[in-house]
Design a protein that fits this description.
The protein is an alpha+beta fold. Helices cover 30% and strands 35% of the residues. The protein has helices at 13-20, 23-26, 37-47, 96-112, 126-134; strands at residues 4-7, 52-58, 61-70, 80-86, 116-122, 138-149, 152-162. The radius of gyration is 15 Å and the shape is globular. The N and C termini lie far apart (34 Å). Bound molecules: coenzyme A (COA). The site of coenzyme A (COA) has 24 residues, from helix 2, strand 4, helix 4, strand 5 and helix 5.
Length: 164
């Protein structure tokens, strides 16, 4: 299976809307059920100004997405960015997340020069934690009752990756 990584284009809005309509995908994030196509269209048409959204494709089908989001609130955090990724259930466990993470880290390390990457992950998301630890992220702290998910509050870890 060949996985191709490319930059998301505004015309990918329907593919990303479909991914975020998958319960097992949005449940691992802070996104809400019933995503809106229009919101995704707008998000992708503006995202190129600040963010890098990448998509993974297999045989021309979008099978996952990942984002590298620079922290722009102050110059003092210019060395940092946060990341996120989502792969729909049918494509999980097939190496798509690994391929997207390699591409994100190449961008972060070799083109932006970010020395600190950050993310949040629910403490019961074993697959995501394993993926992040495989690429050098460590658990930096726990946020009790971080978010509501399917009627229950869930804890999350802050994870970070430092590159000297
Ligand atoms: C978490 C997620 C991004 C992982 O992506 P993926 O494409 O399924 O992951 P990969 O197939 O590349 O596997 C990466 C590593 O995760 C681990 N892993 C994968 N599935 C696993 C599982 N079910 N249980 C435990 N570890 C698992 C393995 O260590 C694997 O590495 P290895 O194959 O070299 O041993 C994906 O499952 C997903 O999008 N889930 C829903 C949304 C979400 O939770 N996003 C993350 C928000 S922080």
């Amino acid at each position: 299976m060949e996985i191709t990584i490319r930059r998301a284009e505004p015309s990918d809005f329907e593919a990303l809307w479909r991914i975020f309509a998958d319960e097992s995908a949005y449940s691992g994030t802070l996104q809400m059920p019933y995503p809106s196509k229009e919101v995704w269209r707008e998000r992708l048409s503006k995202s190129h100004q600040t963010d890098y959204i990448l998509v993974a494709e297999v045989d021309g089908q979008v099978v996952g997405d990942a984002g590298l989001h620079p922290n722009t609130s102050t110059p003092r955090r210019a060395h940092t960015a946060y990341i996120g990724m989502v792969i729909p259930a049918a494509w999980q466990g097939k190496g798509v997340g690994t391929a997207l993470m390699k591409a994100l880290l190449d961008l972060a390390d070799n083109w932006f020069g970010f020395s600190r990457l950050e993310l949040h992950v629910y403490t019961d998301n074993k697959a995501a934690i394993a993926l992040y630890e495989k690429f050098g992220f460590t658990r930096e702290g726990t946020h009790p009752r971080y978010a509501l998910r399917q009627g229950a509050y869930v804890d999350s870890y802050s994870m970070g990756r430092i590159k000297a």
